[in-house]
Amino acid sequence: MRFFEWFNRHKAALITAIGYATAAVVTVTVFVYLTFPWSKLSDWIRIKVERAAALEISVRKSEVRFPFRLVWKGVTVSRVEHPVPVLWTAEEISVGWPIGAILRRHWDLDLVVQTLGGEARGRLTVRRAALGMKYRLEGSGKGLDLKKLAEGFGLPSNDVSGTILIRRIEHDWMNGDVLQGQGVLALEATGVGSKRWEIQFSRMNGSMSFKGGMGNLENFSAQGDALDLAGSGSLLLRPDVMDSLLNFNSRVTLRKPTGPLAFLSAMAPPDGHFDFALRGVLRRPTPYLNGTPFASVGIGGAGLPVGTGRAGEPPRLPTIGPRGPGQ
Length: 327
Hints:
This protein is an alpha+beta fold. It has helices spanning 2-35, 38-53, 99-103, 146-152, 263-267, and strands spanning 56-65, 69-78, 86-96, 107-115, 118-129, 132-145, 160-174, 182-194, 199-211, 214-224, 227-236, 245-254, 273-281, 286-289, 292-293.
């Protein structure tokens, strides 16, 4: 009761104070918006990101949206002196700078990226540390097209399909050495398929942790009509990601393989399980069945997948049978 009595006595003064405070905030916001050197900020952010990731960034068009959001359109990210320089493109990147971060002189940038047919959101934090500049990226993404991602890494894109969801990404690194940082990437994908192999997975899940140039893939699983797969592995990172060294091991459970994969039914042990591995350079790793390598995925002279014979002939792959103890 006393509070309400006090409030009624001072209501006019409180409303006046709130009005002045609101007017002050609006005035400061508009003043900063109209007088801030946005073009210099755009160049500063671009240069900072280039140094942080050791990349080159070009922007077709830059504009400002009220109150403190910088928008880049037609963004191209390139690798310096690389045979395939263009790494990634984005239709639009929106960079927001919260007013609180501005007042504290902190570089906390809110990002919204329209790319690969989908959208990613996150925050890039930049701090000065004893050994240089410290960076942290955290965020998530949805609706990313696997076909467009394959194009960005110079891989055949007409053969693959699927949609990627980035459930979580966190990464910390110093100066421009992104690969030597540490973090985690959790992914989910739906409708992942290959036309050549006539296979599709309804869902894939997995997470990868990074530290000191090494990535560890954990809890990977894939479910499809032809087969299910569960495994883990490691990735030794290289400056060109596709030159990284992959070591992936999994357990396959056969369902109803068809087309080029129908031969697996005749080759699998009675329990329908076998080991599948990928080892070598990420761009073109060598596949293994129960420890036995066979020809890398590709297209032969007759237009058939490498490892198959001529039309009507069985695939030239090793016979896979049940493994005995100790094998």
